[in-house]
Amino acid sequence: MAEAKKPRAKSVQKTDLVEMAAAAAVETVEATVIAEPASQPKRASQAKPVETAAIFSTVREQGDVLRHALREAVTVSAQGVLEVNGKIIDALQAQSHAAIDLWQNAIRTPHLSDALSTQTSATRQAYETASAQWKDIAETTAHWFTRSFEPLQTVLQRQGR
Fold it and tell me: Which of 3, 35, 59, 76 is the most exposed place for a label (fewest CB within 10 A)?
């Protein structure tokens, strides 16, 4: 009743299909290897090395210019830092001397009213001096930053043209 199934020739068909696919792939690969590259005009192939060399020399020159500008900016910045630092130290010393003088004068004064007037005038004078000094420090700092970025701005403006 149940019939025995007949074995099919699947293995034969698989072998044939695999061989057929392999043969098609080999033909495609051979056709690709045999094909010659598209012809290019000789002018284009000769121009590339010249352009590449020009680009590399331009990049090298721009790198050298940028390196020099950075070196100059760092030098100017270091000088600006030293200048601002010196002004801050001078301002702090002047303020500490003014405070010491104020207290010495306040202690030496025999009357309380004279001590108050001395303290008031010395405080006003110290405030005016400190304001002028810190304004000078702020201006020097702004000038320092401006001078520090000038070499870089010059280089970037030249490259932008």
Answer: 3
Is 21 a member of any domain? no
How far apart are the C-alpha atoms of 73 and 79, rounded to whole Å? 10
- Total domain count for the chain? 1
* Each residue's pLDDT tens digit, 15-50: 465 566 556 655 654 555 455 555 555 554 454 555
**Would you say residue 57 lies in a domain?**
no
Those residues whose C-beta lies under 8 Å from the C-beta of residue 140, and which sit 6 or more positions away, are: 80, 83, 84, 87
Q: Which domain holds residue 126?
A: 74-161
Amino acid symbol at 76 = V
Q: What is the pTM of this model?
A: 0.56
Angle at 132 between CA 127 and CA 137, to 5 degrees: 120
Burial of 25 (0-12, 13-18, 19+ CB in 10 A): exposed
Structure tokens at 90: 């001078």
Residue 11 lies in a domain: no
